[in-house]
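Input for the complex:
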Amino acid sequence: MSGVPLQDFLVLAGLLFTIGLWTALRRTNPIQILMGIELMLNGVNLNLVAFARYMPAADQMRGMVFALFVLTVAAAEAAVGLAIIIMVVRRRGVVDVNKVNLLRG
Amino acid sequence: MDWPQVIFVALAVGIVFGAYRVATAQVITHAALYLAFVLSLVAGMFYMLQADFVAAVQLLVYAGGIMTVIIFAIMLSELSELKGEVPQNILQRLASPYFGLLPLLVGMLVFAVIMLAVLRVPWPVAPQAAPGDTVTLIGNGLFKTYALPFEVASVLLLGALVGAIVLTRREAGER
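Predicted:
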């Protein structure tokens, strides 16, 4: 763990975030949009842990704890999001987000 | 190149390739498998950054839990149409916000802004000394410094759990 500069991690995390954004924008299937959001959250987590590693040892805990909280919120978001998707599919029978466009159920 | 650089490049190539396949795979289960691949490699990256506890949680929660939930959702929603409608006309397709160039342009713009910010700052090149026992460190952080956010996160998880059960429950009258 000597040779990799922080910049490389930041570039990789930015790339992962961007690919996640691209996935979330180009898909019309809500489950795949959720996958794109998970990719984006992973890019952010990689960023946080990499930043923490390049701080003094006493401060390295902060980045890791922050990453763990992001993980927790991602798990909650995935559970509720997928439950909503399943309910929408059961009620309306479509999965395309372009066709689910009514505010009333 | 020494070993950490070789491992970093190998992991990075795998992550970018897997993420690209998540974005472009035609079959949704393939996209889910590539997502699991990417999540495991990110766990490897965490391990490389000496955050072994975060790597273990990443494997358990993401590659274990969230992937299972996603695959369950794919099976339960009985997706008949996997791709959505692709406009046939090439001009319509390029102008379409969903399949055309617009998502790619927005993505490249965001990436350019991120790179502009990243490349302008002289970041530290060498990591600091590793703290050693990360589990003790994180435990102390979670239960002392960040005790209140920890409790709020547990309430959030409870709310999400109850919400997911209520949303997906079948009513008595439903088929």
